[in-house]
Amino acid sequence: xxxxxxxxxxxxxxxxxTIVGSGVVGLNCALxxxxxxxxxxxxxxxxxxxxxxxxxKNAGFACFGSISEILSDLKTHSEQEVFQLVQDRFDGxxxxxxxxxxxxxxxxNNGGHELFLNKDVALYESCLGQVEYVNGLxxxxxxxxxxxxxxxxxxxxxINGNYISQIYxxxxxxxxxxxxLLQLSYxxxxxxxxxxxxxxxxxxxxxxxxxxxxxxxxTNKLLIATNGFAAQLLSENVEPARAQVLITxxxxxxxxxxxxxxxxxxxxxxxxxxxxxxxxxxxxxxxxEETTEFGNTHLVQNKLNQLxxxxxxxxQSYEIDYNWSGIMxxxxxxxxxxxxxxxxxxxxxxxxxxxxxxxxxxxxxxxxLIA
Length: 371
Ligand SMILES: Cc1cc2nc3c(=O)[nH]c(=O)nc-3n(C[C@H](O)[C@H](O)[C@H](O)COP(=O)(O)OP(=O)(O)OC[C@H]3O[C@@H](n4cnc5c(N)ncnc54)[C@H](O)[C@@H]3O)c2cc1C
Known about the structure:
By secondary structure, this protein is of the alpha/beta class. It is built from 11 helices and 18 strands. The strands form 3 sheets. Strands 1, 2, 8, 9, 10, 11, 17 and 18 form an 8-stranded mixed β-sheet that branches. α4 (about 80-100) packs across α7.
């Protein structure tokens, strides 16, 4: 794009901070930079017309980890690391609620429930046997016992008679949350340019040259918050992971309320506006879902349909309204990567499946890395 003198002067001169990615991390990073630097010129570059990764596509669970997920994490992480992950998720959700307000993000604390299919009796027994231990480990985070055994009151079919529930788990309206975050960013004079993809950058030591599909310009600092797309700009250990979701049409008399986890978190569903939103199934073909391409597959959608019909809504008639997908950034470790990659470039990526919870803290920490 051939920039005019005016465009050059008003949009692309003397930029203090440029953030790549307008997801929950990028916007929280921009807002934290604004708090620390009231007069700075802050630019956010976003390749999509809307944020186009995970932040506007997710299921809106404000969650801390189901019992089986925490026990599974304890196999690959130390107790201290797992404790810290949960603490960060808790702090992150509080931070998001404080920043935007519960109304603006549609926050509700309806509890989160892990369901165990009848075939998973061994997993249920093993989780049940460790509820007390996990409650003890996490008591400093929640102040009380977070996990409780509750009966199958929503009458799901083909599952154990009890759930193991996380009573502090909540849900948000993802669209409202991202809309509010964008509105707050505009109010704080953060310039967001959509439809602008960063192709490469070069840290010269004094500043950073940023090359986009439209134009090139320089910035004092560059902060990369591209999560699942991180490998396109950075050599960090982040793999893309597509997640597919469907939503039903509104269902008359739907009484299901809360967030639900199935098969060690590979499936998840919730109520929203008298509908059921259901996602998951990456485990059916990890290789195919390791992609930055949006899309839905028959394999996953058929499985989601089957779960709806046989487990979630066995006695209710419903219609599927539509489906979509989003791209997450994952790795062997659950911990996000927040680091300086060169003198003037830093990144905050690899949010996994918990970006709602930790996104605000990751964004803040990214901003504080270079402050
Ligand atoms: C279907 C689904 C369900 C999920 N459910 C939950 C849930 O219930 N609870 C929860 O806590 N988490 C959930 N997650 C995970 C959560 O949404 C993510 O962890 C979080 O949104 C990540 O935020 P982010 O800002 O790091 O990344 P993103 O939101 O992906 O933002 C990165 C942005 O960078 C942009 N970008 C990438 N490359 C470039 C480039 N080169 N130039 C310019 N822009 C670029 C992208 O377009 C994107 O908008 C879910 C994710 C998915 C996909």
